[in-house]
Amino acid sequence: MKKALIFLSVLASGMAYAQETDGVYVDAQLLPGSDVGSVLKLEAGLTVPLINTAKEKLTLGGKVQQTAFDFVDKDVPFETDQIENFNSFGIKFTYQRNLSDTWALNLMGETQIASNFDENEIKTDDIFFNGLLTFDRYNDENNSMWTFGAAYDIRYGLYYPIPVLAYTKRMDEAWAYKLGVPDSRVKYSVGGNHEFEGFATLTGFTGNINDDIDIYKQEYTGTLRQTNVLLGLGYTLRFWDRFKATLEGGYTAYNQMQVRDYDNELIYDFEMPNSFYLNVGLKYTFDSKARVNRVY
User: Which Pfam family, any one of them, does this sequence belong to (predicted)?
Assistant: First the structure.
């Protein structure tokens, strides 16, 4: 059942990459207190187009993220001071190119440092690499699009690549939906400035523990990984031409957090219960000249 939930959620993540808009953003995500602990993520980023033509677009992006864990000590059988705060810094290139009137290519490559910096230095294991390759197939007759490919990204908390497969359709001016891996959504738009969404999406966290951690009176090295399947509702308000504010709320249908060694062998499972979810964000968007077919 858990594997099925992850797979269903993975069905649409490539769409998020393919249809990202350039701009400046801030974002805050909260998974409030549970029997084990709560998680707060704060993120800010910038994506700037370097090449921006009707046929292709190349963007450079950067982001910083702080993730704070507030553990309930009585439910975790070891000292958690080392894994309560993680910081992440990333630089990303994204490339989109129209291959024809119906086909498009999407590429993403990212270098990311994610660590608890317990030793106040950057180690080799603190550095991660993310990548994505997808193709879009647009159908003008029914205003729909297929996307397929593969992605590897530590933001899902997984140590293996995932398939990207999604079907997106615009039904009319107000309604659109996309079904896929790892993000499925249905959207209702009102007046061009208001959007209401229902979604099932995969998210998570990966951070390196760059010093030995004592678990069950043994010293270990490895990573802290969290994977969530989120079900929820969202509202987006567009204002002042280029700004948009987003509020989302929901519940985790799947919530896993583990310490794993560098061979991806399990060291400790926190057995996180499902919990409520809240996300707020603000973004300023840039113009795009690329003639990429968008149906969502």
Answer: DUF6268
